[in-house]
Amino acid sequence: MTLGFSSVVGLPPMTVPLDEYVQAPGRAFAPFSATHHTVTGHVVEFDGDRAALPAHVRAEHRGPEERAGGGPDRWLVVGFYDNEAVRTPHGWRLSSVRLTATHQENAHLPGPAPVT
């Protein structure tokens, strides 16, 4: 599976096994006290055994307090997903997940806590 989150974490797109991707959100969001992701406006566009799955996203993340340093503790990401899926013998499976952030607030919060 290809992951593209460079607009929010600055890493280039990468290919990872699907089972690794399934585990990744738990690790990525562990430092936050709460998260709320709203994904809307889903459209599925079929092209044979491939499908495009665009959608809008608004994701709010609270904390970590150590990283906020007494300032705002909400990391807001607004944008859209351009996901893709392929038909396999086991049904449809995601093959690509790409997030494009069009707006962020407090983008410093997902990094490691500052050393004091």
Keywords:
elongated; 116 residues; 17% helix
Question: If you had to describe this structure to a student in words, what would you say it looks like?
Answer:
With 116 residues, the chain is of the alpha+beta class. The protein is 17% helix and 50% strand. It has three helices and seven strands, in the order βαβαβββαββ. Strands 1, 2, 3, 4, 5, 6 and 7 form a seven-stranded mixed β-sheet that branches. Strand 6 (74-88) and strand 7 form a beta hairpin. The radius of gyration is 16 Å and the shape is elongated. The protein starts with a strand and ends in an 11-residue tail after the last strand. The mean pLDDT is 89.
The gist of it:
The protein is 17% helix and 50% strand.
Beginning-to-end CA distance, first to last residue: 38 Å
Secondary-structure-derived class: alpha+beta
Our Rg estimate from Cα atoms comes to: 16 Å
User: How many DSSP E strands?
Assistant: 7
What's the structural blueprint in terms of helices and strands?
Layout: E1 2-4, H1 6-9, E2 14-15, H2 18-29, E3 34-40, E4 45-47, E5 50-62, H3 65-68, E6 74-88, E7 91-105
